[in-house]
From TrEMBL:
One of its GO terms (molecular function) is RNA binding. Residues 76-142 form the R3H domain. SMART domains: R3H. InterPro entries: KhpB (IPR039247), R3H_dom (IPR001374), R3H_dom_sf (IPR036867), R3H_KhpB (IPR034079). This is R3H domain-containing protein. Coiled coil: none annotated. CDD domains: R3H_jag. Transmembrane segments: none annotated. PANTHER family: PROTEIN JAG, RNA-BINDING PROTEIN KHPB.
Amino acid sequence: MDLLKQKLNEIFKASGLDFSFEVDEGMKKVSVFIHDEGIVRKFFPKLVFELEHIIKVIAKNLKIEKVIVDVNNYKREREGLIVELAKAAARKVLVEQKEIALPAMNAYERRIVHVELATRPDVKTESIGEGTDRHIIVRPLL
């Protein structure tokens, strides 16, 4: 992980961006913070995608597997939103006593929903669909 830190430091310095980053070796997580609000506001989705790709390629070349990348706490905030969506869906399912479909999500986000609602004895979750259309159905347990 030290070599990864060194490579990232070189890349970020060369980019000219005002940045900082932290590497959690135990969690294999890289948290990047871009401090230039103008760039973040204008290019954020692309910036997240590209930084994640670059960092994962570098890590893979260094034989470091499954690195988690979070830019400006986007992933952490997104996880919080998904947990709240799951809880709201469970409440709605119980009130209306009918299943509801959540929006399409990637595998990581679907896992967050399944884990969050697995502790509830009154609802059941199921992933259905294929590819980018895969989503979760939340059903009441009768």
